[in-house]
Specification:
Blueprint lengths: L2 E6 L5 H13 L3 E6 L5 E3 L5 E3 L2 E2 L10 E4 L5 H6 L2 H12 L3 E5 L3 H7 L6 E2 L13 E2 L4 E4 L2 E4 L5 H13 L1 H10 L5
Parallel strand pairs: 1-2, 1-6, 2-5, 6-7, 7-11, 8-9
Antiparallel strand pairs: 3-4, 10-11
């Protein structure tokens, strides 16, 4: 079974994080909610507190197949300021392992310079922060080991793209049908 981790920081966009968690768990793809805050309770950008499954310092990164970053503010800034997380992102990228981000969070990858030559998307108005990327305006962009998406309204297509990455297009289409989502 594929194993993924989604990283929560104070100010994360709740819909972007929890939609992905819900869809992946429905698809039987293991997803661990990981707090980078040094405590399991993380407050979202709309004052919804979520209890993470574990802390960043306790995560077994070697067992993960994909790292996922939700957007939101100041959640994205908090992710970008987390040097331990960024070191692991760089390690994943160096190994060609899967990385995904939605909304403002792809700018973390852009700021690290790891999107150079890749197609990517992000929240409208933040495209300038996708340093070196070939910016797209579609809901979800897959290029190499990256999946990026635009924002809260694209959280379902983003989650379905992750399902497709691990289980194929038929599984993603089946999930869309089960949740009454028209692709």
């Amino acid at each position: 079974m594929a194993k993924t981790a989604i990283f929560l920081a104070d100010g994360f966009e709740e819909i972007e994080a929890l939609t992905v968690v819900d869809l992946l768990r429905r698809a039987q793809i293991e997803i661990t909610m990981v707090s980078i805050m040094g405590r399991r309770n993380v407050e979202g950008s709309h004052n919804i507190t979520v209890m993470a499954d574990e802390l960043l310092e306790d995560l077994d990164f070697d067992s993960c197949d994909m790292l996922i970053l939700p957007g939101g503010m100041p959640g994205t800034t908090n992710l970008d300021n987390c040097e331990m997380l960024k070191a692991k992102i760089r390690e994943f990228n160096d190994k060609g392992k899967l990385l995904s981000a939605i909304c403002a969070a792809p700018t973390v990858f852009g700021g690290m310079g790891i999107l150079k030559g890749k197609k990517a998307t992000c929240y409208p108005g933040r495209e300038g922060d996708l340093t070196g990327a070939e910016v797209q305006s579609t809901e979800v962009v897959k290029d190499g080991n990256f999946i990026t998406s635009r924002g809260m309204g694209t959280a379902i297509p983003f989650g379905l793209a992750i399902i497709e990455q691990f289980q194929g297009a038929d599984a993603a289409a089946d999930m869309a049908k089960k949740i009454v989502y028209n692709r």
